[in-house]
Amino acid sequence: MTKSTSTLPSTTSQSVVGAGQRIYSPARQQLRETAPKLMQLTDDVLFGYMWERPQLSKRDRSLITCTALVALGMTDQMASHFPRALMNGVTKEELIEMITHMAFYAGWPNAVTAALKAGELQAA
């Protein structure tokens, strides 16, 4: 079964992040130039649709997203999602506690790397 994208908001002219805030970065612009369809799907489906669903708060979506990034060792994405989680209501203490908790599920090296990334962002 194919879902029509006509029900999805169209935001392809700007980069969108949950909470209705738009983020512009060189990386997003490079992705837009390199893989425009991927960027369109990121804007329209991921941030324009999934992040706007009412079943989870943006705070909860941020904590879940950050947890997945820690588990997968995606440090580049942590740099944007950790601050976004703080803006969406996750506390610094909760973020660090999630990283500590994930050490036992995602591996010590992933947790240490994530904790160092969180520390870099806090120091900035």
Rounded mean pLDDT score: 85
CATH fold-level assignment of the largest domain: AhpD-like
Helix coverage percent: 55-70%
Strands in their spatial order, largest beta sheet:
1-2
Regarding quaternary structure, how should these chains be classified?
single chain
- Catalogue the unreliable spans: 1-20
Outline type: globular
Count the DSSP helices.
6
CATH architecture of the largest domain: Up-down Bundle
The helix/strand class is: mainly alpha
Strand content: under 5%
* Series of secondary-structure elements, N-terminal to C-terminal: EEHHHHHH
Pfam families: CMD
InterPro entries: 4CMD/NDH-1_regulator, AhpD-like, CMD-like
Domain Carboxymuconolactone decarboxylase-like: 36-118
Protein name: Carboxymuconolactone decarboxylase-like domain-containing protein
Short description:
The chain is 65% helix and 3% strand. It has 124 residues and is mainly alpha-helical.
What does this structure look like?
It comes from Variovorax defluvii. The chain has 124 residues and is mainly alpha-helical. The chain folds into 2 domains: 11-55, no CATH class; 57-124, AhpD-like, CATH 1.20.1290.10. The chain is 65% helix and 3% strand. The chain has 6 helices and 2 strands. It has helices at residues 26-34, 36-47, 58-72, 75-87, 92-106, 108-123; strands spanning 16-17, 21-22. The protein has a two-stranded antiparallel ribbon. Strand 1 (16-17) and strand 2 (21-22) form a beta hairpin. The chain is globular, with a radius of gyration of 15 Å. Mean pLDDT is 85; it is low at 1-20.
